[in-house]
Amino acid sequence: MTVAEPKLADLKMADLTLANLNLANLTMAELMSGRPAVVPVLLRHGLACPGCAMAPFMTVREAAEAYGLELGALLDEIAAVGRPAASFAEIG
Fold first, then answer.
1. Region 49-77: what's the mean pLDDT?
2. How remote is the C-alpha of 14 from its chain's centroid?
């Protein structure tokens, strides 16, 4: 008997940390511009988001679903890459 992986629709909001929930709702373009170090993570998972015309419109959650990736694990890996890039206002 095979146990099916839970689908994205089955993932409960309570299963995600607040930080991961915030990451899940970013567009891919926002994620990559704010955290450039995530690009190798995305490429390693086979996501074609860098350079994709849909990156400004597709959220991390939607990309995980489109590529058949487990959202929680992807978000954990993205979060582990590091903090977002500092803006010029923060550098001051």
1. 94
2. 17
